[in-house]
Amino acid sequence: MSEPFLAEIRMVGFNFAPRGWAFCNGQILPINQNQALYALLGITYGGDGRVSFALPDLCGRAPVHPGTAAGDNIIQGDKFGAETHTLIEAEIPNHTHGVRASSEPTNAPIPTGNTWGVTSEPFYSPAAGLSMADGAVGIGSGGGGQAHENCQPSLALNFCIALKGLFPSMS
Fold first, then answer.
1. How far from 89 is each of 71, 97, 125, 145, 153, CA to CA, in Å?
2. What's the pLDDT tens digit per position in 59-114?
3. What pLDDT was estimated at residue 18?
4. Which among 19, 53, 33 is positioned nearest to 160, based on CA atoms?
5. Is-contact 165 19, C-beta < 8 A?
6. CA-to-CA distance for 58 and 56, rounded, in angstroms?
7. Residues in CB range of 8: below 8 A, 6 or more apart
8. What is the DSSP secondary structure assignment for residue 109, as one 8-state letter?
9. Helix H segments across 13-147?
10. For 48, phi and psi rounded to 5 degrees?
11. What does pTM read for this prediction?
């Protein structure tokens, strides 16, 4: 394997960081012991910039390229996104909940196999003679307001950053 660039990030399929590398887990490093690495990373990923700086933290995150995506201006070092999300009404597509009703008189006390009927007691009518309600009848709220998982299909690998290597020159 050729010598890496300092601060180069690679994915590995094993469970340790090789010699001269560290996991991309947000670890805080002292500037005075890692001046060349600090010159490349600065405080982009954390630290106080006086005595410490941080390595990138890719734990539970997908790497993305900086730039503009979906109207967002993504700056190097930004953390964004969420593992779960609770939909709000504005995010649910427009749709209707049709109600099946009958013009027949009601004669059944339970809903199974029956529809809403003309009179109010009991509330249900046999399924024969069905028609769609014209919107005057509705259905109550549904759902429990819980968040749902928001992760893309993924495979966990380790990301490592080179602590030693060639200092990259600008082209």
1. 21, 15, 33, 10, 26
2. 989 998 898 877 778 999 999 888 888 988 888 888 877 777 777 776 776 767 77
3. 96
4. 19
5. no
6. 6
7. 161, 162, 165
8. S
9. 35-41
10. -95, -10
11. 0.69
